[in-house]
Amino acid sequence: MSIITKTLLKWYLDNGRILPWRVSPKDAKAGQTPDPYKVWISEIMLQQTTVNTVIPYFKKFIKKWNCIDKLSQANENDILAFWAGLGYYARGRNLLKCARELAEKFDSKIPNDKEVLLGLPGIGEYTASAIRSIAFGESEVVIDSNIERVVCRIFCIKKPIKQSKKNIKKYAHLLFPEYNSGDFAQALMDFANFICKPKKPNCTLCPIAKSCLSFQNDEVDNIPIKPTKKIKPLKKGYVFFAKINPNMFLLERRPSEGILGGLLGFPTSTWDERKFETTYPFEAKWTHINKVVTHQFSHFKLELEIVLGEKVDPQFDNSKYLAIEDVNFDLMALPTLMRKVYIKAIQI
Ligand code: SF4
């Protein structure tokens, strides 16, 4: 085991975070073992989401769906409504698909075979390795974006992360111990969060500074090398906020495929261009009010202009649109983009 590995495991013992899905090294010594279900749920939630955001969602989730059996019987709309605010809804949908497959084919247990895990919905290389090492104590090399950054810095890799994947893997293999790889993965995650942070790493407090090549070569501020920034394309469209009477408005459930698939929202035009002669979703008195909501998706920016509808034709398609009473409305049931629309629309 390298000196870096030993030092970081020791650091983790003293400084590791106490998290609701985690068994600390001290508790592990006392015989406690991690719950694979909790490890799986947490790893899915933590994809593209910070630990602090995940903690309250995780606690609520486990309270509501405390095992695979219960989760497998959940309704997809309930899961998606729960996921509102966490974003990347495909994760919620895949979680449910996966729970159903686990209930059907794996006796409601998480398997620890890598190939089997990789065949399950929503589980990729990183998640499979994390589950195997953290939940089952199997030997794995776990690499997420934080670990990539730390490895780049320790070994002073002078190419952007995207072009260094093979090298990062090679160096990570040097660091990960054969036993305890789950603890080491969690040690690296905490170390990346508290010490080797994305911006302004705490090198003066760092227990491995002597072994860190970026620190020794005075390159910390330059590593990882930043890739040239791609400008995200801008898409535009209209969003229709229609009142059928002063206390009721209309929502629709979006088609299950595509962005925000299966979620509740206000009807929108297609997202490409914005032109005045738009197609309105149903008959109403429409007013363009010159208010725009902007939102960042991972691959593009979106600008939706709010169009207000009044005197809605009572013959609107009620199999497609849901009439919602203001008093019964839970804003948290909407994805973030649609919450922004609601908040701007009701200020008018
Ligand atoms: S010395 Fe600085 S850059 Fe190197 S591992 Fe420690 S915190 Fe990260």
Provide the fold topology:
Layout: H1 3-15, H2 25-29, H3 36-45, H4 51-64, H5 68-72, H6 76-83, H7 90-105, H8 114-118, H9 125-136, H10 145-154, H11 165-175, H12 181-194, H13 213-216, E1 234-245, E2 248-253, E3 264-265, E4 285-296, E5 301-310, E6 321-325, H14 336-345
Parallel strand pairs: 1-5
Antiparallel strand pairs: 1-2, 2-3, 2-6, 4-5
The structure holds iron/sulfur cluster (SF4).
- Reported by name, the CATH topology of the largest domain is Endonuclease III, domain 1
Mean of pLDDT: 91
Proportion of residues in extended strands: 5-15%
How many E strands? 6
Short description:
By secondary structure, this protein is an alpha+beta fold. It has helices spanning 3-15, 25-29, 36-45, 51-64, 68-72, 76-83, 90-105, 114-118, 125-136, 145-154, 165-175, 181-194, 213-216, 336-345; strands at residues 234-245, 248-253, 264-265, 285-296, 301-310, 321-325.
Question: Can you offer a commentary on this structure?
Answer:
The structure is a single chain. This protein starts with a helix and ends with a helix. It is α+β, with helices and mostly antiparallel strands and 348 residues long. 33% of the residues are buried. Strands 1, 2, 3, 4, 5 and 6 form a six-stranded mixed beta sheet that branches. The protein is built from 14 helices and six strands. The site of iron/sulfur cluster (SF4) has 14 residues, from helix 10 and helix 13.
